[in-house]
């Protein structure tokens, strides 16, 4: 394969942010929330050092995922860093998710919903069809992967 042939690549970048939240659904009673969320339902909240990883992968043959033969890049990492700053760090880092992030005023701030928030925020900034996966580590043991709206298999 010559260097000028189309080559595809994955590109990922990680960031870490700190935030606190309370797992609490307005649709449930206080007792039901405590039973469902346990200590994570503490009225004063609890904190995490979240690690977010954004990855792009070929879904179909999209020109934007090909390695540019001139620059040798799929995407400029400086641009990706700026997008992640705007979509993740600025709205979430050192914030109380439930009180400081309008998205979570009506949405329970589970890690699953944090991943959706990040996905939706990045989708507004990145070229269409380029985002493949958002992976959020709440702890070393708890990880959520979100790939946008996917139909349930079955």
UniProtKB/TrEMBL annotation:
Role summary? Involved in the biosynthesis of tetrahydrobiopterin, an essential cofactor of aromatic amino acid hydroxylases. Catalyzes the transformation of 7,8-dihydroneopterin triphosphate into 6-pyruvoyl tetrahydropterin.
Q: Name one GO biological process term.
A: tetrahydrobiopterin biosynthetic process
Which PROSITE patterns does the UniProt record give?
PTPS_1, PTPS_2
Cofactors named for this entry: Zn(2+)
Task: Read off the SUPFAM superfamilies from this record.
Answer: Tetrahydrobiopterin biosynthesis enzymes-like
Q: Which GO terms describe its cellular component?
A: mitochondrion
| Tree of life domain | Eukaryota
Name any one GO molecular function.
6-pyruvoyltetrahydropterin synthase activity
Q: What is its EC number?
A: 4.2.3.12
Class of enzymatic activity (EC top level) = lyase
> Which pathway is this protein assigned to?
Cofactor biosynthesis; tetrahydrobiopterin biosynthesis; tetrahydrobiopterin from 7,8-dihydroneopterin triphosphate: step 1/3
Q: Can you tell me which family this protein belongs to? A: Belongs to the PTPS family.
Q: Which UniProt keywords apply?
A: Lyase, Metal-binding, Tetrahydrobiopterin biosynthesis, Zinc
Q: Which PANTHER family match?
A: 6-PYRUVOYL TETRAHYDROBIOPTERIN SYNTHASE, PYRUVOYL TETRAHYDROBIOPTERIN SYNTHASE
Annotated InterPro entries: 6-PTP_synth/QueD (IPR007115), 6-PTP_synth/QueD_sf (IPR038418), PTPS_Cys_AS (IPR022470), PTPS_His_AS (IPR022469)
Q: Can you say what this protein is called? A: 6-pyruvoyl tetrahydrobiopterin synthase
Give the organism, scientific name.
Answer: Mionectes macconnelli
């Amino acid at each position: 394969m010559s260097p000028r042939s189309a080559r595809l690549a994955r590109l990922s970048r990680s960031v870490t942010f700190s935030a606190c939240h309370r797992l609490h659904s307005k649709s449930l009673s206080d007792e039901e929330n405590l039973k469902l969320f346990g200590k994570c339902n503490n009225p004063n909240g609890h904190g995490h050092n979240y690690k977010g990883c954004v990855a792009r992968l070929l879904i179909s043959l999209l020109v934007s995922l090909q390695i540019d033969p001139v620059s040798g890049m799929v995407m400029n990492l400086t641009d990706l860093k700026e997008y992640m700053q705007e979509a993740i760090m600025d709205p979430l880092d050192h914030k109380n998710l439930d009180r400081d992030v309008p998205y979570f005023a009506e949405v329970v701030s589970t890690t699953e919903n944090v991943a959706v928030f990040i996905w939706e925020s990045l989708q507004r900034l990145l070229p269409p069809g380029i985002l493949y996966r958002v992976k959020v580590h709440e702890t070393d043991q708890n990880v959520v992967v979100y790939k946008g709206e996917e139909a349930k298999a079955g």
